[in-house]
Design brief:
622 residues, alpha+beta, Glutaredoxin, Glucose Oxidase, domain 1, four-stranded mixed β-sheet, 20% strand, disordered N terminus, disordered C terminus, binds 2-acetamido-2-deoxy-beta-D-glucopyranose
């Protein structure tokens, strides 16, 4: 048994070494911008950890804290009575810890439990940045890995030292973590690849792969059917070094005479399934994708892989050709074509499909070699972070050119909920429950909203106001309005807020009654009595005088009655003249009617000039 394991090590290590001579592993990075203190201002690189949830497409602002105790973050911070929970309105804390003594994931988990919003790990030696990965070991504490939700970043030793120095000086170190350029987002289609394995018995890594496929299937199929994405699954295989070609080990782990191999699922050649069973199932899955893709339904791969994992598990001894073919038939995919694509695993020749997979493993352009299983590649960059539906969807969404994201990218699943705290720093009208804060997967945006068809305009941060018709319907257009003694006055007018007549003020918060009497703007006639009211005033003139408000003047009551009588006289004479006129018209019409009667009677006895002309035209038409 021990001998076998040594052999395994030798083979895999040598194969991996071979690979690393040719390609490269690329460390995926994001940027960290220090905004204060001035001495540190600038943009620094950091490496995205392979766990937690990097905020692909977004940014995060926080204040860096370096603990006084537990500096490596290997123990829970509650043991030291340290908490980094942010208070309402306070900035989130980015916890800086030192590398060493425990897993990166343990540091992140402890930081998260202490309330930190992100963890920065300072390297302990001067070297190029590395990718912080999850532990390989299958320990029973693995379930905390999936619960890490804060992003993590590794920073260089020298940058870490400068940060610590500034913090010890008492400076407030404020930074902005930025993942916006961590993924290219050139157009409105995202290409992504999932490097996986059909092996279902390799511990937590295999479990998390199949769990991810099951959870992500729905979103993946929607994106693919609507043409938002182009997905391709990939499978890693190794080859057997020539010296071992004829060994029992290579025979049990490889197909096509040592060309395509996979490790034994149980790491024991004498029992259960062999490596070559895994290679064959992987090959079947590649071929299934090819055939489904050719028939225009690439998304069937997701159905097949989930169904196969459920119906044909190794543990039930159903990881077989027969079981796989049952699943293929149930999905209505052409089995003959798949078998054709798979070729003969025993033949001493290349298999075109698996050869292409091996070639694709080696990195090109910006994408490094694929060496971690599973690996997700989005727009030719390796995804870092946990394999979780929301985290991956967020990353894929960040791969779309801005504003071309499909609706699924704006769903509740992946929004950042930054509006919950302090309204995201955006404008809001609490009384009317209107806010400019909108959560998206890219983080929150402050944008004046549209409420019930009324558009708000403004900068979204300090100011938004309703515009257009109907604006006064909502919250009175943000203008002053008051009711008092049965009267209501509003400052909302089409062009903005303006205090109504009788009031003065800004029209928004305040309109005050104008005391017309005191300010002598009205009712200044001699002998007049002025009384201020809310929004207006009352004015009374002396005896026999009438107050005309429009002209702010008093007039005698008598002349106004004479005017009234003369007006009636005018109407009376008007009616008489109209009556006489009507009689005259009547007389005239009677006469002309009689004239035409006489002409008609006469026409019966003698043809009249124009009558004849009319008859001609008539005949002509018939
Ligand atoms: C992780 O989260 C799950 C579900 O929310 C929970 O049941 C489990 O106890 C958590 N594990 C740890 C270590 O907190
Ligand atoms: C899947 O089909 C599309 C369009 O037909 C094609 O561009 C793409 O290369 C195919 N993918 C594979 C892996 O065959
Ligand atoms: C404010 O509006 C949101 C949605 O528009 C609603 O969910 C919430 O309950 C409202 N809050 C209050 C206090 O009315």
């Amino acid at each position: 048994m021990g001998g076998k394991l040594v052999w395994l090590r030798v083979v895999w290590v040598s194969v991996l070494l071979w690979g690393s001579c040719w390609g490269k592993f690329v460390v995926e990075k994001n940027s960290l911008k220090v905004t204060s203190p001035d001495s540190l201002k600038g943009i620094y690189e950091c490496a995205i950890g392979n766990f937690g949830v990097p905020q692909y497409g977004g940014t995060m602002v926080g204040i860096v804290a370096y603990p006084k105790a537990n500096r490596k973050g290997c123990q829970g911070f509650d043991n030291f009575d340290i908490s980094y929970k942010s208070k309402p309105g306070g900035f989130p804390t980015f916890l800086l810890v030192d590398r060493g003594d425990c897993y990166f994931t343990a540091k992140a988990w402890n930081a998260q439990n202490a309330g930190a919003a992100a963890v920065l790990v300072a390297d302990n030696k001067a070297e190029p940045l590395i990718t912080m990965d999850t532990p390989e070991e299958d320990d029973n504490k693995a379930d905390y890995l999936q619960n890490i939700t804060i992003p993590s970043a590794l920073i260089s030793k020298s940058f870490g030292d400068s940060l610590k120095k500034a913090i010890e000086n008492g400076d407030m170190v404020s930074v902005n973590l930025d993942w916006r350029e961590s993924l290219p987002h050139p157009d409105d289609r995202v290409e992504y690849e999932f490097w996986t394995n059909s092996n279902d018995e390799c511990g937590p890594k295999c479990d998390s792969q199949i769990q991810f496929v099951k959870n992500f299937k729905g979103a993946a199929q929607i994106l693919e059917r609507k043409g938002y994405t182009q997905f391709t699954p990939h499978y890693i295989t190794w080859y057997c070094p020539e010296a071992f070609l004829l060994s029992k080990q290579c025979k049990s782990q490889c197909i096509n005479h040592g060309r395509y191999c996979a490790p034994d699922p149980e790491q024991d050649f004498s029992k259960g399934y062999d490596g070559k069973d895994v290679v064959v199932q992987n090959l079947r899955q590649v071929c299934l994708f090819k055939v489904a893709n050719e028939s225009g339904k690439p998304w069937l791969w997701w159905d097949y892989v989930t169904d196969f994992a459920i119906r044909c598990p190794m543990s039930d001894k159903k990881y077989t050709k027969e079981c796989a073919e049952e699943v293929i038939k149930s999905l209505g995919i052409d089995l003959k074509k798949i078998n054709q694509c798979m070729g003969d695993p025993d033949a001493d020749e290349e298999n075109a499909v698996l050869k292409a997979e091996q070639d694709a493993q080696i990195g090109k352009d910006s994408r490094g070699d694929v060496t971690i299983l599973p690996t997700l590649v989005i727009n030719n960059r390796q995804y870092r972070g946990k394999l979780d539906k929301a985290a991956v969807l967020k990353a894929i969404c960040a791969g779309f050119q801005e504003t071309t994201e499909p609706a699924v990218c704006l769903s509740e699943d992946i929004e950042t909920n930054e509006c919950r705290e302090n309204n995201g720093g955006c404008w809001q009208d609490k009384a009317a429950n209107i806010t400019a804060c909108k959560d998206t997967f890219r983080g929150r945006i402050c944008e004046c909203p549209v409420v019930e068809g009324v558009k708000f305009v403004g900068d979204g941060y300090t100011h938004c106001e309703a515009s257009g018709s109907g604006r006064c319907e909502i919250n009175n257009g943000g203008c002053w309005k008051k009711s008092h003694e049965g009267k209501t006055y509003s400052a909302c007018v089409d062009e903005g807020c303006k205090c109504p007549l009788g009031f003065k003020g800004d029209g928004v918060d305040k309109c005050e009654d104008v005391d017309e009497c005191k300010e002598k703007t009205a009712c200044q006639c001699s002998g007049c009595k002025c009384k201020n009211t809310w929004g207006s005033y009352e004015c009374s003139c002396g005896d026999d005088l009438l107050y005309i408000k429009e002209h702010d003047t008093c007039i005698s009551k008598k002349p106004s009655t004479e005017v009234g009588w003369s007006f009636l006289w005018v109407i009376f004479f008007g009616l008489v003249i109209a009556g006489v006129g009507a009689y005259a018209i009547y007389k005239y019409r009677i006469r002309s009617y009689m004239d035409s009667e006489i002409r008609a009677i006469m026409a019966q006895y003698m043809p009249l000039d124009n009558q004849e002309a009319q008859n001609h035209i008539h005949h002509g038409e018939i």
